[in-house]
Amino acid sequence: MRRFASILTLLGIGLISLLGARPVLAFPSLPSSFYGTVKVNGANVPDGTLVQASMYGKIITEIQTQTYQGDSFYSLDVPGDDPDTLVVEGGQDGDTIIFIIGGIAADQVGIWKSGTFIALNLSTSSAATLVPAQPILTLVPTETAIILMAATATPLAMETQSIPTSTVLNLGPSLPTAGMPTTPTIPVATNLENTPTVSSTTNLSIGIVIAGFILFIILFTILWVIIVRKPKVE
């Protein structure tokens, strides 16, 4: 019985260690940021022209240009790559970044380095036509119509009790009502965040717990059968 108790103790310790195991996650690196003017054939580009960062033949990120103090400007954050995945999400220290202005490669290139903010003016000389500028995305507040509920009393003959009648008035911004305070419209922002998904780490942890519990039950059953069937020594 002492041997059986020792085996159960070891199994319990192993199960606890298995349940406490967690996969090690790499801390995401800081992006490598670039900013500066954008010129094609020595002239500014239309606002909304895409400036893209390409690495390993893949577009990593992009931004739209805007005019600032008479020049076309861009500001771009190039994310870092996650070494734990097979997909290229960004760069690593020393990687070369190719910048593309409206579909035309810039004469300048960047070197990716985590946590840097580098001034790099982009320019190119080409007879090719730029990809048409995209509309600059801005969040427009949504105006909500104001509905006013006004109750009026209509008297009836023969001293009958008055019955209130509800009247609905739709007061838009262009039809102010005299003597009545206006209520400011409330901007409504659209939530652009993605719906959170179930973490793969959580699924892996649940699978480890289930596998460890099943293993413990199987080993316990085998040991119990061995002890029960063992002939007793008289």
Describe this structure in words.
This protein has a domain at 32-124: Immunoglobulins (Immunoglobulin-like). It is built from two helices and twelve strands. Strand 3 (50-55) and strand 4 (58-64) form a beta hairpin. It is α+β, with helices and mostly antiparallel strands. The chain has helices at residues 2-19, 200-229; strands at residues 32-40, 43-44, 50-55, 58-64, 66-68, 71-78, 96-101, 104-111, 117-119, 122-124, 146-156, 160-171.
Assign the CATH architecture of the domain at 32-124: Sandwich
Q: Give the count of helical stretches.
A: 2
Order of helices and strands: HEEEEEEEEEEEEH
| Largest sheet features | 6 strands, mixed
CATH superfamily of the domain at 32-124: Immunoglobulins
CATH class of the domain at 32-124 reads Mainly Beta
* Gyration radius over CA: 35 Å
Mean pLDDT rating = 74
In total, how many beta strands?
A: 12
Q: Approximately how much helix is present in the residues?
A: 10-25%
Cα(first) to Cα(last) distance is 16 Å
* Low-confidence parts: 141-154, 165-169, 174-178, 188-198
What would the CATH topology of the domain at 32-124 be?
Immunoglobulin-like
Query: What percent strand?
Result: 25-35%
The secondary-structure class comes to alpha+beta
Shape label: rod-shaped
